[in-house]
Amino acid sequence: MATVIADGLPNGRGALLKEQNLSSLKQQTTLKYLHHAKNFVIHRTEGDTFSSVSPFLIQKGLSATVGSIKAVIKMRSGDLLVEVSTTKQAEQLLALQLLANIPITVLPHANLNSSRGVISESDLYNVPEQEILEGLQDQKVCAVRRITIRRDGQATKDRLEWTPINFRCRQPLPYNCDFDMFELKRALSSAHNTSPGPDEISYELLRHLNEDSLVGLLYLFNRIWREQVYPTPWQEAIMIPILKPGKDPKNPPRYRPIALTSCLCKTIERMVNARLVYQLEKNRCIPLFPQRKIHSRQNYSDGKQNQKRFCPEESSSFYLFRYREGI
Fold it and tell me: What GO annotations for molecular function exist for this entry (predicted)?
């Protein structure tokens, strides 16, 4: 499977360009693509940046030379980010050498004028990049780069292995066997009393099941595990917006969406996750550190919960400290 990155022009406009001087840009990219770009960076060639220049002077200078443009923003670097509305304005801006008697250079923005996509196609594995570019030019593709990976210091073409994994090996592995009642009860006991999903089956209801009902639930989970068929209703969720503390309730971006999924789905996921974590720790696939008790999960200064790592009873700050000490 050949995998290439194609830089295209969104809606037939723009180009992905590197920060270089304008003469080298015009040598590498056709003027057609340069003039179709809509976002440009104006850099001051002499003296300081535009940080100390009056915004009114900048606006008057652009209006006198280019006309009414869409937007002008002072970037953190001190350069100007200009968005034009028409191709004619783009051409006039590229030809500009002075802005209010200040020497400048104008470059298309390196990222805002293009969209990047990944093409995975086995028929393109042995096709040169230049031929791929020529074949996709009618779709406004202006640059193509093949993805490579390094193995033993050698760069090789990337082959995406989409072959389905065969779980039916000759030697039975313990992590592929059926779940037992202990794993089910442990998953239910460790779950918090969260709101149920669309099926309205809560953890409290599941914990009150008798032994016969638990046997039936375990049989259902093992059928899903063996037959590798994920129930379609479990792929649905109820979205509830929760207002962030101290935010304006009339402003929609101040809400945090919460997805309520099936508790049955989360139970079997917790059972699978317990097996995966055990195997990863057993085979040293994830780093193991000495378990240390955290005196409290509460931050006494502000009353908020500290962010925790996925390992039980370990904080993120402990592992960040260990990482820093190892540098």
Answer: RNA-directed DNA polymerase activity
Query: How far apart, in whole angstroms, are the C-alpha atoms of residue 180 and residue 155?
Result: 46
Contact 131, 120 (CB under 8 A): no
Rounded to whole angstroms, how far apart are CA atoms 212 and 205?
14
Q: What residue type is 276 in one-letter code? A: L
Using CA atoms, how far apart are residues 100 and 44, in angstroms rounded to an integer? 11
Reference 69, options 99, 26, 43; nearest CA is 99
Q: Which residues contact 292 (CB under 8 A, 6 or more apart)?
A: 313, 314, 318
**Tokens 């003296």 sit on residue:** 47
Helices and strands (H, E) in the chain, number of each type: 10, 12
pLDDT in tens, 202-252: 999 999 999 999 999 999 999 999 888 889 999 899 999 999 999 998 998
From the number of C-beta atoms within 10 Å of its C-beta (0-12, 13-18, 19+), residue 311 rates as middle
Whether the full predicted model's pTM is greater than 0.85, yes or no, is: no
| Inter-CA distances, 102 with 16, 47, 72, 99, Å | 27, 9, 17, 5
Contact 38, 83 (CB under 8 A): yes
Query: If DSSP codes are grouped into helix, strand and coil, which group holds residue 115?
Result: strand
